[in-house]
Amino acid sequence: MIRGPEVGRRWDLGERATIGKSPDNDIVVVDATVSRQHLLIEQHSAGGFRVKDLGSTNGTYVEDTRVVEAYLRAGSEVRVGEVAFKLRAVYQDADVVPGAGNFGDLVGQSAPMRRVFALLERVAPTDATILITGETGTGKSAMARAIHDQSKRCDRPFVTVDCGAISINLIESELFGHEKGAFTGAHAQRRGALEICAGGTLFIDDLDDLPLDVQSKLLRALDAREITRVGSTKLIKLDLRVIAATKKNLIEEVAHGRFREDLYYRVSVVTFSLPALRERLEDVPALAETFLSQSGRSWDGLPHALRERLQQHSFPGNVRELRNLLERAMYLEGFDAVDPAVFPVETSTAAGGTEFRLVADYMMPFKEAKEALVDRFAREYLKRLVARTAGNIARAAREAGIDRKHLYALLGKYDLNPKGKEAKD
Fold first, then answer.
1. Is the per-residue pLDDT at 341 higher than 60?
2. Which percentage of the chain shows pLDDT scores above 90?
3. d(CA 382, CA 401)
4. Model pTM score
5. Would you tell me how many other CB atoms lie within 10 Å of the CB of residue 362?
6. What is the pLDDT of residues 111-145, one digit of tens each?
7. In this structure, is the dihedral angle defined by the CA atoms of residues 103, 108, 113 and 115, taken in order, positive or negative?
8. d(CA 205, CA 367)
9. Residue 348 — very low, low, confident or very high, per pLDDT cuts 50/70/90?
């Protein structure tokens, strides 16, 4: 309750709940403006909740609009008389027993990945909207494809929209399509991704790059399951499943006003967080075996020194970095000639000191290669900065020429926060 006699009180909604001042309601609100049996809130088959006014005297309002019946989403405000409630989603970790070491083409023997696979076995056959989070290169796209392949929509289209690779002024058209003449350059009618993947799965990658105005339109499309092309008024019904992926913490993006809270709740019905490869190095042999088998090679056939090196590397580029390294060795260099410079490590110099070598992976797409290189530089720079300043954040911020709050954020991002007595501010 956000306004009324018991501000701050919370109730858990089951499949259905009635609200009113009569004692036989599930949620009893003693207020003169609330009817004895005021409204009903119940789950509906499409997911989410539906509110229905029960003939109240002062009416039921959703976001300041009086309704007889309406659908609710997380974040919706419901007013009964002069009393107001806010519907909030509460997320719980699913209790799953680790399953097999694979799901479709995905492999992994580590406990975190086997838990992911076990949950995927339960969720993939449904139409639940899924959000996949994780660093660049952890396999978000591969997971989305595996979910589609194991779903009842597997024989229908799988369409990808990469928000980070599309010009901002074209994203709306990419998603919703447009009519001829809708804007400068619209020389012909074009169907959008939401329409093209009819009956199939829409994968929205880099969801965090979606502009706020397009976020609101996407939310309406997902709620109503209908769209209009840019420049048209004709409604087009949708039948699709949505899987989204992001490399950012969307809760933080919501807090900073860069992402809509209601859209976050809409796409995160089920959330999977893919761990970085450095957190599950025991999966390196199985992953390498999968990539190598495509050319008839095997993990055991690699030089012993290379296998050891791979199992000790931190992989800033995650699974994609491992795959690209092996592919480059297969097609260009040969495994015995793999250049150790592809690993960002300290090497000895002629003067007896050490230097940190950063080498870009020129086999990766430009955007991904740049991100991986910047991440490697940032991590090493911050590690040396903290060591040089003995954990004195104020001094480190001055030397780096950045704000202390920003420095704290960077240290947290790269898990380099000084702890205890080491952090001096």
1. no
2. 46
3. 12
4. 0.67
5. 9
6. 889 999 999 999 999 999 999 999 999 999 999 99
7. positive
8. 14
9. very low
The pLDDT tens digits of the residues spanning 259-300 come to 998 899 889 889 999 999 989 999 999 999 999 988 888 999
Angle (CA) 390-276-98 rounded to 5° is: 130
Q: Alpha-carbon distance 240 to 261, whole Å?
A: 22
- CA dist 317 and 368 (Å) reads 8
Task: Give the span between the Cα atoms of 7 and 23, in whole angstroms.
Answer: 19
Distance CA 42, CA 52 (A): 8
Compute the distance between CA of residue 51 and CA of residue 71 in angstroms, rounded to an integer. Answer: 6
What secondary structure, in 3-state letters, does the chain show? CCECCCCCCCCCCCCEEEEECCCCCCEECCCCCCCCCCEEEEECCCCCEEEEECCCCCCEEECCEEECEEEECCCCEEEECCEEEECCCCCCCCCCCCCCCEECCEECCCHHHHHHHHHHHHHCCCCCCEEEECCCCCCHHHHHHHHHHCCCCCCCCEEEEEHHHCCHHHHHHHHHEECCCCCCCCCCCEECHHHHCCCCEEEEECHHHCCHHHHHHHHHHHHHCEECCECCCCCEECCCEEEEEECCCHHHHHHCCCCCHHHHHHHCCEEEECCCHHHCHHHHHHHHHHHHHCCCCCHHHCCHHHHHHHCCCCCCCHHHHHHHHHHHHHHHHCHHHCCHHHCCCEEECCCCCEEECCCCCCCCCHHHHHHHHHHHHHHHHHHHHHHHCCCEHHHHHHHHCCCHHHHHHHHHHCCCCCCHHHCEC
Largest Cα–Cα separation, the chain: 87
Check whether 353 has a pLDDT greater than 50: no
Residue 359's pLDDT is: 62
Question: How is residue 222 written in tokens?
Answer: 């997902």
Length, in residues, of the chain: 425
pLDDT, averaged across the chain: 85
Residue keyed to tokens 């139409």:
127
